[in-house]
């Protein structure tokens, strides 16, 4: 088990049907109307001449306008209250380590991580207590797996650069 130092807020609770529903809803929210439109356009080949970075920025801008519209209309996204709030100490591709020793071995949990990814969002995860402070990731949505893994890789590169700078 290898962990990259990363301090990310995480909240979680023991998995139940209500929390499983929220996990499923948060996954489908990544397929919002603009996301669905872009997926279909890509499938039809209508975006092949488009710069992917500009396209992603336009999508993010559209989502931000939707968020502002919801804020103006006083529409607030409600999340289910989760019992535990802590921070990760390290992230791995299949496991993560938390600061507090509060996990129960073999118990399944639902959690939300505030990964510093673009665009910002709550990343839902279903995991199992492996040790009191180590969680084994069981399920994440495809888009979240990509962002999670990319964050770990970027964090690892940053740590390597820091070590090189210290050692000359």
Task: Explain how this protein is built.
The protein has 168 residues and is of the alpha+beta class. The protein has a domain at 4-29 and 80-167: Thrombin, subunit H (Beta Barrel). 42% of the residues lie in helices and 24% in strands. The chain contains 4 helices and 7 strands; from the N terminus they run E-E-H-H-H-E-E-E-E-E-H. The protein has helices at 17-29, 33-43, 52-72, 142-167; strands spanning 4-5, 9-14, 84-91, 95-98, 108-113, 123-131, 134-139. A 6-stranded antiparallel beta barrel has the order 2-3-4-7-6-5. A hairpin with a 2-residue loop joins strand 6 and strand 7. The radius of gyration is 18 Å and the shape is globular.
Secondary structure elements and pairings:
Layout: E1 4-5, E2 9-14, H1 17-29, H2 33-43, H3 52-72, E3 84-91, E4 95-98, E5 108-113, E6 123-131, E7 134-139, H4 142-167
Antiparallel strand pairs: 1-3, 2-3, 2-5, 3-4, 4-7, 5-6, 6-7
Q: How would you briefly describe this protein structure?
A:
The protein has a domain at 4-29 and 80-167: Beta Barrel (Thrombin, subunit H). It has four helices and seven strands; from the N terminus they run E-E-H-H-H-E-E-E-E-E-H. It has helices spanning 17-29, 33-43, 52-72, 142-167; strands at residues 4-5, 9-14, 84-91, 95-98, 108-113, 123-131, 134-139.
């Amino acid at each position: 088990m290898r962990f990259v130092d990363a301090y990310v807020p995480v909240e979680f609770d023991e998995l139940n049907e209500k929390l499983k529903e929220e996990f499923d809803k948060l996954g489908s929210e990544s397929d919002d109307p603009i996301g669905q439109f872009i997926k279909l356009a890509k499938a039809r080949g209508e975006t092949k001449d488009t710069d992917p970075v500009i396209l992603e920025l336009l999508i993010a801008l559209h989502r931000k306008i939707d968020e502002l519209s919801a804020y103006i209309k006083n529409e607030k996204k409600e999340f289910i209250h989760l019992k535990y709030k802590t921070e990760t100490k390290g992230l791995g591709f299949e496991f993560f380590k938390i600061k507090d020793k509060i996990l129960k071995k073999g118990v399944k949990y639902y959690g939300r991580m505030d990964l510093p990814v673009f665009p910002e969002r709550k990343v839902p995860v279903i995991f199992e207590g492996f040790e009191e402070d180590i969680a084994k990731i069981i399920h994440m949505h495809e888009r979240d797996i990509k962002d999670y893994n990319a964050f770990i890789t970027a964090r690892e590169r940053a740590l390597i650069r820091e070590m090189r700078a210290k050692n000359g």
